[in-house]
Design goal:
single chain, 8-stranded mixed beta sheet, binds zinc ion, 20% helix
Length: 137
């Protein structure tokens, strides 16, 4: 597959409101959008760092995988999202062919208008990996 850039870093937080002052007032970044992604049970907030985005992830309920991540002692970086040039479906097929465990068998709609799919951290050296494409590009 051909990865063009890191699309965003997903950062797990218990409360977006509680951490935004750090990102905005200390780092001087600006939150340009918040969005609830129902099927992932998260509220997201996006900030731009040059070409790359930070995606803050706040669980919306106890069953959220982000809540489980936090409950298991996870902090900070939750996943790394790569932009794939030939599309998520093709990248998934390629990963599947190489024996990589897929969380998503097909692309689905993610936050910020992207088509996304996750690869399992057990197959990706411990890093939850998201593949993305912007269908409007
Ligand atoms: Zn993400």
């Amino acid at each position: 597959m051909k990865i063009s850039k890191i699309e965003h870093l997903g950062i797990a937080v218990q409360s977006i409101d509680a951490v935004l002052p750090y990102f905005e007032n200390v780092l001087g970044l600006k939150c340009y959008k918040t969005e609830v992604v129902e099927d992932q049970k998260v509220k997201t907030a996006f900030l731009k760092v040059g070409e790359v985005k930070l995606e803050l992830l706040e669980p919306t309920c106890a069953e959220s995988t982000v809540q489980k991540f936090l409950d298991n002692g996870g902090r900070g970086i939750h996943h790394v999202a790569f932009c794939v040039e030939d599309g998520v479906a093709e990248a998934l097929a390629e990963c599947d062919g190489q024996g990589i465990r897929l969380i998503d068998k097909a692309p689905r709609k993610g936050a910020d208008g992207l088509q996304i799919a996750f690869l399992h951290p057990k197959s990706t050296v411990g890093i939850l990996t998201e593949l993305c494409e912007d269908p409007n590009k």
